[in-house]
Design a protein that fits this description.
Blueprint lengths: L4 H10 L4 E5 L3 H4 L2 H11 L3 E6 L5 H8 L3 H14 L3 E8 L6 H15 L11 E5 L13 H6 L7 H4 L2 E3 L8 E3 L11 E3 L2 H4 L12
Length: 208
């Protein structure tokens, strides 16, 4: 919907960076189809499109996205697949949902039936996000967690990626720590990338 989007994306790719574009693959994306195809032809594997498809069951997807949303997203996804775009999918795991292996198998069946070249067993190609419940009682993150989980602080999204937003009515954009924490002021790191180059405290429920 941003009229400068394709120019911004071209600038990113031209500088040698990889770009991950998040979309629901509906009308706003299709309005830019020709420009996206031109960038895909030029930059190929450096451009990845991640489509939000919450669930392979249309009713579950549309409970969040609205009536008719599943079919329109699937049409956009098939367009991207047909034209050779590098694709990822973002799904969601409902609170209290059952076996993730079955969910991945159901996604795999949907992909196979529609010629969508996404490996449903790959946790990056098909990224299943947990539901974010701001009222949930979650464990506090301590330094010991890194060893317990076998993780490094550098493996977290906020260690390598930030989000820049221009809020309605604001004079300048702001740099945020995380795409999932857009409305908590303590995760607003500054007005420039230089200001934002500092540690992020993992003290939000969604961090856990």
């Amino acid at each position: 919907m941003n009229p400068d989007f394709l120019t911004m994306l071209a600038d990113t790719l031209r500088r040698g960076f990889e770009a991950l574009v998040l979309t629901n693959a509906m009308k706003p994306m299709m309005n830019q189809a020709a420009g996206l195809q031109a960038l895909q032809a030029q930059y190929g594997e450096r451009l990845t499109i991640r489509v939000s498809l919450d669930h392979p069951d249309p009713a579950i997807h549309e409970a969040e996205r609205g009536a008719g949303g599943f079919e329109r997203t699937l049409e956009g996804l098939c367009f991207l697949a047909t034209h050779g775009f590098r694709l990822h999918i973002a799904g969601r795991v409902a609170i209290g949902a059952g076996d993730q292996a079955k969910l991945r198998a159901d996604f795999a069946a949907l992909f196979a039936a529609n010629g969508i070249p996404v490996d449903a067993t790959d946790p990056v190609a098909l990224m299943l996000f947990p539901e974010m419940d701001a009222n949930a009682d979650v464990p506090e993150i301590a330094t010991a967690c890194w060893g317990i989980l076998g993780k490094s602080p550098g493996s977290l999204m906020c260690a390598a990626a930030l989000m820049v937003v221009k809020r309605k009515g604001s004079v300048r954009p702001a740099v945020l720590a995380c795409t999932l924490l857009a409305y908590d002021p303590q995760f607003e790191l500054g007005l420039s990338l230089a200001e934002a180059s500092r540690p992020v405290a993992l003290n939000h429920r969604h961090c856990a």
